[in-house]
Amino acid sequence: MYNSENHAQTLRKVVIAGGVRLPFCRSNTAYADLSNLDMLSDTLQQLSTRFKLSGKKIDEVVAGAVTSHSKDWNLAREAVMSTDLSPATPGITLQMACGTSLQAALMSAAKIATGQIDCAIAAGTDTTSDAPVVFQRRFARRLIKLGQARSLKARMQTLKGFRLSELAPRAPANGEPRTGLSMGQHCELMAQQWGITREEQDQLALESHLKAAAAYDAGFFDDLVNSYEGVGRDNNIRGDSSLEKLASLKPVFDRKHGTLTAGNSTPLTDGAAAVLLCSEEWARANDLPIQAYLTAGRSSAVDFVHGEGLLMAPTVAVSELLMHNGLTLQDFDCYEIHEAFAAQALCTLKAWEDPEFCRSRLGRDQAMGSIDRSKMNIKGGSLAFGHPFAATGARILGSLAAILEEKGSGRGLISVCTAGGMGVAAIVERS
User: CB under 8 Å to 269, separation ≥6 — which residues?
Assistant: First the structure.
């Protein structure tokens, strides 16, 4: 008979040994000529070098990218084979939009906790500098048929009715397939619904940049971020930003009435990040540090097609995560709230403070309440670093573990929104 109490006692702690990442760069700048495979391979190699994993078999490397080419169907495995990790290390390619690498960490952590595996690497990479550009479907079908043709007559037949318009390429669409709206347009609707002002958004953006610049200057990122392609730190950070500069920018998604600008929204970004997870026994056997423990996680989704905010799913994921673990929103020493847009992060905070939303949507008797904003994104957030979609979760997880190690103890909460109306949340602890 299943006994939940006995089962819980058999679970092992999941160690976060540490993370590494490339400096994140605005698309079409420093990494313009690199691919996802290039960046992921180099990041995994940096992780291997930092933790002396050369030749070692890792039980699994789970990684992915959001903007990818069809040739990258085996991305994680090909990246592993491009490093000095043992070629016996399996690679699993995963995609959950902006939650990809955090979801990868949670999936591998569950296997470590239950004893199925002893170690894993969770990673993500993304580049919109190398975005896949494809032909119209009609022309693509012609090319397939041309390749199948076995005679000159058959080849000529495939070109019957050909028009030059078929050669027009189709770039990746930055929008939700079911609504046709971009993420920024969806977030504008959320900002209007929750009454988030332009001033609030610019203030959060400014804080993000100033904290990130200060963290770099203090050496916090010395072990987390290695110089790469001549870049030493994320090239989106603006340590000299000001409210006046941010206020001068024009709205980009709703030019007449909008509040979202290039300054309070994350830019298209290239980069990669990875985190090493393992059991305590494996950490000791391999002389690895124990920065913190990944203790719980949750994924949720909302019906954004029929009225719910596209990026509001983290409110649900966090609520469910806290209820499942008997915690309140205030039981944390630090919060890592992904800033896809300043408005998105502020909508999330406001929803948790709203009694009606918490009752009707989250099934709670009262509001979850507010958080101490001085504990939120204390080393900067995505607005400053940038947001290479699939890499952001690993970036946050690695940084939070380092923050808790620096503090010596504590509990941290991660909240990440994703395209498709989904959200991923996690708890990280150090005692």
Answer: 24, 25, 26, 27, 126, 128, 236, 385, 386, 387, 388
pLDDT band at 4 (very low <50, low <70, confident <90, very high): very low
Domain assignment present for 270: no
Which positions are catalytic?
A: 98, 387, 417
Q: How many CA atoms lie within 13 A of 182 on its CB side?
A: 13
**Containing structural domain, residue 341:** 183-219+295-430
List own/partner pairs for 76-83 with CB under 8 A and 24 or more apart.
76/40, 76/123, 78/37, 78/41, 79/37, 79/40, 79/41, 79/44, 79/123, 80/44, 82/37, 82/41, 82/44, 82/45, 83/41, 83/44, 83/45, 83/48
Radius of gyration of the chain measured on its C-alpha atoms: 22
Q: What's the pLDDT score for residue 172?
A: 67
Give dist(CA 340, CA 406) in Å, integer.
26
The answer to whether 268 and 8 are in contact (CB under 8 A) is: no
Q: Which residue has the tokens 């040994």?
A: 17
Q: Is residue 209 part of a domain?
A: yes
pTM of the model: 0.93
With CA atoms as reference, report the closest residue to 358 among 304, 319, 412.
319
Q: What is the DSSP string of 349-363?
A: HHHHH-HHHHHHTT-
**Residues with Cβ within 8 Å of residue 197, at least 6 apart in sequence:** 259
**Six-digit token string for 390:** 């699939």
Q: What is the pLDDT confidence band of residue 137, given thresholds at 50, 70 and 90? A: confident
> What pLDDT, in 10s, does the model give residues 353-379?
999 999 999 999 999 999 999 999 999
For residues 43 and 37, what is the distance between their CA atoms, to the nearest angstrom? 10
Could you give the CA distance from residue 164 to residue 429 in angstroms, rounded to a whole number?
59
Which amino acid is present at 69?
H
Structural domains of the chain, count: 1
pLDDT averaged over every residue in the chain = 95
CATH assignment at residue 402: 3.40.47.10
Query: Between β-strands 410-418 and 334-337, what pairing exists: parallel, antiparallel or unpaired?
Result: parallel
**Per-residue b/e over 12-41, b at no fewer than 16 CB within 10 Å?**
bbbbbbbbbbbbbbbbeebbeebbbbbbbb
Q: Is 192 exposed, middle or buried (0-12, 13-18, 19+ CB in 10 A)?
A: middle
Asked, for residue 213, whether it belongs to a domain, the answer is yes
Token pair of 280 as six digits: 């305590």
Residue 309 lies in a domain: yes
* Cα(196)–Cα(24) distance, integer angstroms: 28
